Amino acid sequence: MKNSRSCLNQEGAILFISLVVLLIVTMLAAASLSTTFMQQRMAVNTEAEMLAFTASESAVNAAAENTSILLQSIGTSGSSNPQLTIDLDDDRVVSSATIVHKEIGIASGFSLGVEGGSFGAYRFEIQGSGVITSLNIQSNTTQGLYKIAPGG
Question: What's the pTM?
């Protein structure tokens, strides 16, 4: 008879221990799920930041290669500086560049026409911007460049 009583007492303890173990496993699973969601949000934000940065760099590069918009910036200032908007085939991203003409200086290292001053270094600053409005993410890039051209 002692054996049957000890078995009955053990069945209640096993049920209690099983419930505690189940509760601990559930809590670990919930914590793991929360961490997974946080990592996913971080990955999405990082990807969006890189997309905005790439968009701003694309705008700067497109403006640097566009001679006509560089010429438009000569003699302008403030809000009249020319802007270039780039179509990236992505409706979520707005990519644009503002071109600022800084000065015309001596074309250092350029020996043709130095005595006559017929060549000069046209200095520009290009300010690129990439914006993803739906996520409120913006990246700005500024690059300076100069072009050697006649008329310095």
Answer: 0.71
